[in-house]
């Protein structure tokens, strides 16, 4: 009897302790969630960018691998789709070098569904992962051994779905399929991977640009807006800077990590200040990485451990470079006094030789070089019908020691325009003039140069300025260049210098305080009194108040700042625990337990200098 009483008392004591622990955990979770909700409060934060500008617009994303879509569009695509855009995501390869196509494709669809994008919006071209297919070398799927397009169980590759047959793994067929999928859906906007350090990124970027050349030359009325983006240098391998008092914008890659450190990016012609910066929907922002919608999507790519790189991938902006498609030269007849005229209107800024792999691939097959003994050094552009021209864009040989230092453009009406030294890095040199009408041809002649004179591209436009099809303004910290949303300042901060990014660089804007006390604007600088707590600030384009951005600025007290610092440590720990959970889940879901054990045994063998297993 006494034994039973003791046993019951022990059980009751254990139960009480367990209940106390559960209540303690619940209390901690409640405090955590309460503090997080305060930090994540986006009251007063708003931007007009996604409201209606993409309604009924067609948007296509073209990337090599299943997860690259998140690297280049994961923070903007959901907002476009939610606000009425017709979205298509195109994966060029099956991602099947180490993992099955079915696994990669299932992960991709699950991830996009986390962002609200249904799987019927996904297209798989079905080409192999990790090969040199793009430079004409024989290719096959590492995981399946196939030499033609295919898809995992339950999925279809595009070529088979469209034409009833699979396509052989050739560089030409990939270009054909990209051309076909673009022309089938005819998107208004194309977000495409650019040429960075990954073999497949380079190859698909070049393949896409070859397809665009064909499209622009035979579909003169179709000029989609093209935005190119680096998936590795600006996301996967970027700076792990998520944990900060305020969200950081994308940072330029360390130039030493570029294919050629002489330039700002992996495409010599891209200047960092010319990038297009799209804002992030406020629902995608959080001080906890686990709350961010993109983290939830990345977590679906278990086989790639993509979630581990979330600190690098999630930023306050998405960065692109615009590639104009409305040049009059795509359907013009171009001749050169020497060199290769076909390289001057092929849409491609760079090309490669016989490989896309390696840290420093040679850029070639992209610049038309004049012979040294060519006395003319001239390019003539003949249109198929009279045109109005107000701008000619020239892209110099990007070799830094080979530069065109001066020239002259002569038009068919006899008028001439002097051309200054072209940008030595090969970036666009825009020669703008009063519109010239009824122009049937023009000739650019080099008058002064150094090294080997040459051109990468020559473009001509009816309108000098380019309409991206959307209107955007976004407030930023003028000192750090970071976009501002819900912005926290420390107790001792007295001012905040504001700037703004606008889709039209020539547009003026007005900044004003909408709500808040103990704060004033001096020019574009917010000046805070000692008792300042919170304010709402709005920026509007002059003459177009429907294009606006609205942010909040809140001062933390000393106690709140210390609380935030503790909160951030907890967040980092929770993030590490969750990535460990996902890694463990991957071992079992994708059957990697044996593989990992085998790797472990092999590592022991190597250390011991013996050989036990095969």
Please give the alpha-carbon distance between the first and last residues: 63 Å
Radius of gyration: 28 Å
How are the strands of the biggest sheet laid out side by side? 4-3-2-5-6-8-7
Count, helices: 12
Percent helix: 25-40%
Judged by helices, strands and strand pairing, the structural class is alpha+beta
Largest sheet data: 7 strands, mixed
* Outline type: globular
Sequence stretches where pLDDT stays below 50 over 5 or more residues: none
Mean pLDDT: 93
Q: β content, as a range?
A: 25-35%
- DSSP strand tally: 23
Oligomer: single chain
Short overview:
With 614 residues, this protein is α+β, with helices and mostly antiparallel strands.
Structure keywords:
614 residues; seven-stranded mixed β-sheet; alpha+beta; 23 strands
Structure, described:
With 614 residues, the protein is α+β, with helices and mostly antiparallel strands. It is 27% helix and 27% strand. It has 12 helices and 23 strands. The strands form 4 sheets. It has a 7-stranded mixed sheet with strand order 4-3-2-5-6-8-7, sandwiched between helices. Strands 9, 10, 11, 12, 13, 14 and 15 form a 7-stranded antiparallel sheet that branches. Strands 1, 17, 19, 22 and 23 form a 5-stranded mixed sheet that branches. Helix 6 crosses helix 7 (199-218). It is globular and about 115 Å long. The mean pLDDT is 93.
């Amino acid at each position: 009897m006494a034994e039973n009483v003791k046993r019951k008392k022990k059980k009751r004591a254990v139960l009480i302790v367990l209940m106390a622990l559960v209540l303690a955990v619940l209390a901690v979770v409640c405090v955590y969630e309460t503090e997080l909700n305060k930090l994540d409060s986006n009251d007063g934060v708003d931007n007009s960018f996604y409201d209606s500008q993409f309604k009924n617009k067609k948007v296509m994303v073209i990337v090599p691998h299943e997860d690259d879509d998140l690297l280049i569009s994961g923070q903007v695509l959901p907002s476009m789709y939610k606000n009425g855009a017709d979205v298509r995501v195109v994966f060029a390869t099956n991602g099947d070098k180490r993992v099955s196509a079915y696994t990669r494709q299932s992960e991709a669809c699950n991830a996009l569904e986390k962002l609200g994008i249904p799987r019927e919006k996904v297209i798989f071209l079905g080409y192999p992962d990790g090969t040199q297919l793009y430079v004409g070398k024989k290719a096959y799927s590492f995981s399946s051994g196939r030499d033609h397009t295919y898809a995992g169980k339950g999925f279809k590759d595009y070529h088979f779905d469209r034409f009833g047959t699979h396509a052989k793994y050739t560089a030409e067929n990939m270009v054909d399929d990209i051309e076909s999928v673009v022309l089938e859906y005819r998107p208004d906007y194309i977000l495409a991977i650019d040429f960075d350090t990954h073999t497949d990124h380079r190859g698909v970027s070049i393949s896409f640009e070859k397809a665009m050349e064909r499209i622009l030359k035979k579909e003169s009325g179709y000029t989609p807006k093209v935005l190119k983006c680096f998936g590795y240098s600006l996301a996967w391998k970027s700076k792990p800077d998520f944990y900060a008092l305020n969200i950081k914008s994308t940072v330029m890659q360390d130039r030493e990590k570029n294919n050629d450190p002489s330039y700002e990016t992996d495409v010599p012609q891209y200047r960092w200040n010319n990038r297009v910066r799209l804002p992030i929907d406020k629902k995608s922002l959080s001080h906890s990485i686990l709350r961010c919608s993109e983290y939830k999507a990345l977590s679906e790519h278990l086989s790639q451990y993509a979630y581990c790189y979330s600190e690098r991938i999630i930023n306050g902006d998405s960065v692109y470079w615009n590639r104009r498609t409305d040049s009059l030269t795509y359907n013009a007849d171009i001749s050169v006094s020497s060199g290769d005229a076909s390289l001057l209107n092929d849409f491609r800024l760079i090309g490669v030789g016989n490989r896309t792999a390696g840290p420093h691939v040679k850029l070639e097959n992209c610049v038309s070089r004049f012979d040294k003994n060519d006395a003319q050094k001239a390019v003539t552009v003949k249109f198929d019908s009279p045109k109005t021209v107000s701008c000619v864009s020239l892209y110099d040989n990007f070799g830094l020691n080979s530069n065109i230092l001066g020239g002259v453009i002569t038009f068919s009406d006899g008028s001439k325009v002097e051309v200054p030294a072209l940008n030595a890095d090969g970036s666009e040199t825009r020669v703008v003039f009063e519109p010239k009408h009824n122009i049937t041809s023009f000739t650019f002649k080099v008058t002064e140069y150094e090294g080997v004179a040459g051109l990468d591209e020559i473009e001509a436009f009816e309108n000098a300025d380019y309409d991206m099809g959307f209107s955007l303004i976004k407030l930023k910290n003028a000192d750090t260049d970071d976009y501002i949303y819900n912005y926290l300042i420390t107790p001792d901060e007295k001012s905040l210098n504001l700037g703004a990014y606008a889709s039209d660089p020539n547009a003026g804007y007005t900044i004003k305080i909408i709500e808040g006390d103990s704060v004033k604007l001096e020019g574009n600088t917010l000046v805070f009194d000692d008792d300042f707590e919170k304010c709402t600030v709005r920026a509007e384009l002059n003459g177009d108040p429907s294009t606006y951005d609205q942010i909040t600025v809140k001062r933390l007290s000393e106690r709140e700042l210390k609380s935030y610092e503790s909160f951030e440590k907890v967040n980092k720990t929770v993030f590490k625990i969750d990535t460990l959970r996902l890694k463990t889940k991957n071992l079992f879901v994708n059957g990697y337990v044996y593989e990992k054990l085998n790797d472990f045994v092999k590592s022991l063998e190597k250390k011991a200098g013996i050989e036990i297993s095969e």
